[in-house]
Specification:
Layout (H helix, E strand, L loop, with lengths): L2 E4 L14 E5 H6 L1 H7 L7 E5 L2 H7 L6 H11 L3 E3 L8 H17 L3 E4 L8 H13 L5 E5 L2 H6 L6 H18 L2 H4 L4 E5 L7 H4 L9 E4 L1 H7 L29 H19 L1
Parallel strand pairs: 1-8, 2-3, 3-4, 4-5, 5-6, 6-7, 7-8
Helix pairs in contact: 11-12
Length: about 270
Amino acid sequence: MTKFCHIVPTAHLDLVRTRKCHLTLAHLIEEDSRYKEFYSRPTMIGDVIMDNSAFEMYKRKNDMYPTDKLIRMADMIEANYVVMSDYPGEPIQKTMDAALTMIPALKDNGYGTFFCPQSEKGDLEGLIASYGWAFHHPGIDYVAFSILNIPIAMGCETGNPLQKYLSRFQFMHMLSKRFDLDKIHRTKKFHFLGMTEGPNEILLMKDYLHLINTWDSSAAAWAGLNGIRFDTSPTGLVDGKFEKEVDFNYATSDTDKIEMAKYNMKYIDDLLEW
């Protein structure tokens, strides 16, 4: 069964204390002492994936964290897997070369490797080739499918939200025609990074959920903490994705909003159990 990693503001980390998987963000481990302390507890349940914060670095136009710094931060929280540097919108080889550099260091320090292919806008064949490379590389443990890399490769990262909503489903269909994903999945784990226009993307992926080990998003908790409840519309959000960027310093004592976040998180868990 797919395990879901809910991402929440620091003040509301108790919402995820008993989750069976966690996706942590490197920039918060560096910048937020409360966040680092929470994930440093030896009682943490389940696997911990440390994201390289590429999405945040991409938005800030900052360089990626160097390997040695990622390892130091992973050590602080005893992560199981480290997401290797990736470069959205740039040539496929740049992300592949970064992985080749990082794999030995991560393995030597006891970490599983997590790879998210990237490509230039419109380079769909290049992205598919990068997945093929990852599927067959013995040093890669986890392979990711993100809300950035696939829409970029398909040329739909901006504009019509329906195109983004369907892009990952279409991409999985394409990959399944070129690769034996069930066979590959025997030696690789698959992760879905983020959600597109709503939680019901999970229903789109019904035929592929057995391949998806883990999935992460801030959508459930963040929407709920802002008073938005998942619904019965086709995407699960009748007014579309809540686009306000997550504020990890946000805190509320409004019990109705906290209960709404819990409801949204359970909504996703229930979809995964269908």
